[in-house]
Each structure stands twice: as structure tokens, then as C-alpha cells.
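Could you help me review a protein record that somebody else here produced? Here is the record exactly as it was handed to me:
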Amino acid sequence: MSNASTLPAALRRPATTPLSEKAGWSLSDTAAAATLSPRSIQRAVKAGELPVARVGRRLLFSPQAVRDWITDRQSTAAE
């Protein structure tokens, strides 16, 4: 049996990068940060409320744009 520490670096699974360090967030990252379902995020994109970059079929979100959108949603809900 081989132990994970004895595997060559190229075969080891990379560590997960924290959201705070990612340059772009996936749909699931964005949904987790906003505590919403991925479908709710897709609806916000379709409504033009949340900017997104499309790379093929993937959606990539700017972390700062997501934070701004969450803040706007919270301030609108408080009014």
C-alpha cells in the first residue's frame, strides 16, 4: 500500500484554495459566498444584476463584484 506522502508531487491532489485567495469565483463559489442556491445566482446573472465573465460554458465571477452585489442586496432588503 502506498501512502499519500510517498506519492510524487505531480500525483498528489492539490490543496483547496480559500475563496479569499481566488482571482475568480465559480458559480458554486459564488453561491456559497452569497448563501444562495446556484440557480438563484444564475437568475441574478440573467436579470443583469450580477456581472459575470463566460469562459466556454463556465461562469466566472469577480469576488469584489459579488461582495458589492451582496452588500447592495442587504441594503435593499433593509429598506
Observations:
- Helices lie at 27-34, 38-46, 63-78.
- The longest strand covers residues 53-55.
- The mean pLDDT is 85.
- The CA atoms of residues 49 and 73 lie 10 Å apart.
